[in-house]
Write a structure and sequence with these properties.
CATH topology of the largest domain: Rossmann fold
Shape: globular
Structural class: alpha/beta
Number of domains: 2
Radius of gyration: 20 Å
CATH architecture of the largest domain: 3-Layer(aba) Sandwich
Bound molecules: uridine-diphosphate-N-acetylglucosamine
Strand order of the largest sheet: 3-2-1-4-5-6-7
CATH class of the largest domain: Alpha Beta
């Protein structure tokens, strides 16, 4: 039998982080050729994230342009991937999550009738508009995926309710937990702030938060610094110019604020572990923080990750300046409230999602041997 081909498609930083463990697992199989294809939706942030796992794309469409619209990202990735799929003839396409790259990878596979495996399937909010456009992206690929890899039982239940057949649905854990544990285990020499004060870590980049909500978030963070003097604020800034402008305006001149370039992934994991309180609108950080026992205030009005809220590690606080400030100040000044949120738990996975995904992918291709069994 000819070597089977799996194309793993990535475009953004989270795609890279959450797909890398799967690529590394698949590449251990001699009868399967695993290709890593990049749309290049992100440039520096993608290369940096893949680099942490020693990966470089086999092919890169390099579509990133500053200020491009969602339609432009979609259009250029779609025609590029279609050509690549025609040339490579993959037997299976894999992509993770809810980015435009993921949606397009699925659509290109659908048009060519190549089976598509969706990593991190089944996350849902109750409105298609939030997160925008991610809720649409993940629902859309769920319509035709041949394999749905749900990170949690809750995500699997969402898919079941939508009529996804049990034999195509697998609860694997989130590959992001594989990634963060892997990086933490390797204990790479990394940067972290030389600091004895408490560290507040802020990240914000979501489209729904652009403009006024993001300004309110930044102002709230500044208020917290003013109210709780033994704190500093570290803000890794997304490369999106829209996001940076607001952060620089509101926080740029404060002596206890470090606005930093996006750290590489191992450094970010260390920073997370070293922080005392996380304020974020990122999905991946909501998943990673409980693994380090770090309280998270989620700067959004909805979340598709209710598990961390149920375990008590996260709170959904929205984007109102006063609410964010009050919640953060309360946690930083009430040790009991803080301790209740700071328990290390792992509702999102056990670090073995990638071997489970590998097993099901190989089974679909008819090359899984009994020794492949990964469902430990
Ligand atoms: C994208 C994803 C979002 C994910 C986020 C993680 C979509 C629609 N959005 O949002 O789901 O949470 O990535 O980061 O798929 N830029 C650079 N260099 C980079 C990356 C970005 O300069 O390495 C700048 C460019 O000007 C680019 C802009 O940031 O146009 C925005 O990037 P884009 O991919 O459109 O959206 P994100 O906000 O990053």
């Amino acid at each position: 039998m000819a070597r089977r081909k799996i194309a793993c498609v990535v475009g953004t930083r989270p795609d890279a982080i959450k797909t890398a463990p799967v690529v590394l697992e698949l590449r251990r199989h001699p009868d399967v050729e695993t290709l890593l294809l990049a749309t290049g939706q992100h440039r520096e942030m993608l290369a940096q994230a893949l680099g942490a796992f020693g990966l470089t794309p086999d092919r890169d469409l390099d579509i990133m342009q500053h200020g491009q619209s969602l339609a432009q990202v979609t259009e250029r990735s779609l025609s590029g991937l279609d050509e690549l799929f025609a040339e490579i003839q993959p037997d299976l396409v894999l992509a993770q999550g809810d980015t435009t790259t993921t949606f397009v990878a699925g659509l290109a596979a659908f048009y060519r009738k190549v089976p598509f495996g969706h990593i991190e399937a089944g996350l849902r909010t109750d409105t298609i508009w939030n997160p925008f456009p991610e809720e649409f992206n993940r629902r859309a690929v769920g319509l035709f995926a041949a394999l749905h890899f749900a990170p949690t039982p809750w995500a699997a239940e969402n898919l079941r309710r939508e009529g996804v057949a049990d034999e195509t649905l697998f609860v694997t854990g989130n590959t992001g937990i594989d990634a963060v544990l892997d990086v933490a285990r390797r204990g790479t020499e990394v940067w972290f702030p030389d600091e004895s004060r408490r560290i507040l870590l802020l990240t914000t980049h979501r489209r729904e938060n652009w403009g006024e909500p993001q300004k309110a978030i930044a102002e709230a963070a500044r208020d917290v610094l003013e109210t709780v003097p033994d704190t500093i604020l570290v803000v890794p800034m997304h490369r999106n110019p829209q996001v940076r402008e607001v952060l620089e305006q509101v926080l740029g001149d404060h002596p206890r604020v470090s606005l930093i370039e996006p750290p590489d992934y191992p450094s970010f994991a260390t920073l997370l572990a070293r922080s005392d309180l996380i304020l974020t609108d990122s999905g991946g950080i909501q998943e990673e923080a409980p693994a380090f026992g770090k309280p998270v205030l989620v700067l959004r009005t909805t979340t598709e990750r209710p598990e961390g809220i149920e375990t008590g590690n996260a709170r959904l606080v929205g984007t109102d300046r006063d609410v964010i400030r009050n919640q953060a100040v309360w946690l930083l000044t009430d040790p009991k409230a803080y301790a209740a949120m700071a328990q290390a738990r792992n509702p999102y996975g056990d670090g073995r999602a990638a071997p489970r995904i590998r097993y099901e992918a190989l089974r679909l291709l008819g090359v899984a041997s009994p020794e492949e069994v990964a469902w430990a």
